[in-house]
């Protein structure tokens, strides 16, 4: 990950800022400049809901080299409360609680770091609600 690109896009990584069409009210995450529903360019920033439902998940036992120390990694397909579907890492995963329909909540966690003295990257992950 390039540090400059990370800092320029931090709203997407930590605040989950997407976009909403002012003409047809469709919402998107990540943000888009042109509405995928009606083609309008009349878009505005929109903070996405931080809760939703787990639709499905997968477990990565052997992730890419950069993420080996974090294995296993769980990825979930999540439907946010506004109907937008996203894919996200799942934090504090307990496989017994990872079921279709489980309520999930966004949290900001460490994604990765550039060595012991390098930049630490933070972003959203989801966890099963208690």
How is this structure best described in words?
The protein starts with a helix and ends with a strand. The protein folds into two domains: 48 residues; 82 residues, Beta Barrel (OB fold (Dihydrolipoamide Acetyltransferase, E2P)), CATH 2.40.50. The chain has two helices and eight strands; from the N terminus they run ααββββββββ. With 130 residues, the chain is mainly β. A hairpin with a 4-residue loop joins strand 5 and strand 6. The chain has a five-stranded antiparallel beta sheet with strand order 6-5-4-7-8. Strands 2-1-3 form a three-stranded antiparallel beta sheet.
Strand order of the largest sheet: 6-5-4-7-8
Largest sheet: 5 strands, antiparallel
Helix and strand composition category:
mainly beta
The CATH topology of the largest domain comes to: OB fold (Dihydrolipoamide Acetyltransferase, E2P)
Task: Give the domain tally.
Answer: 2
Q: What number is the mean pLDDT?
A: 89
Helix content: under 10%
Q: What top-tier CATH class of the largest domain fits best?
A: Mainly Beta
Reported CATH architecture of the largest domain: Beta Barrel
SSE sequence, one letter per element: HHEEEEEEEE
Strand percent estimate: 35-45%
Computed over alpha carbons, the radius of gyration is 16 Å
Rounded to the nearest angstrom, the distance between the terminal CA atoms is 33 Å
Number of beta-strand segments: 8
How does the overall form come out from the CA principal axes?
A: globular
């Amino acid at each position: 990950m390039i540090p400059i690109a990370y800092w320029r896009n931090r709203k997407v990584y930590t605040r989950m800022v997407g976009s909403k069409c002012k003409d047809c009210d469709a919402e998107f995450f990540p943000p888009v400049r042109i509405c995928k529903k009606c083609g309008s360019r009349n878009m505005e920033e929109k903070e996405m809901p931080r809760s939703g439902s787990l639709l499905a998940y997968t477990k990565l036992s052997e992730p890419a080299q950069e993420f080996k120390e974090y294995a296993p990694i769980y990825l979930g397909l999540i439907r946010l409360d506004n109907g937008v579907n996203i894919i996200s890492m799942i934090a504090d995963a307990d496989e017994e609680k990872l079921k279709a329909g489980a309520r999930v909540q966004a949290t900001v966690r460490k994604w990765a770091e550039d060595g012991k003295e390098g930049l630490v990257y933070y972003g959203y992950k989801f966890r099963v609600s208690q």
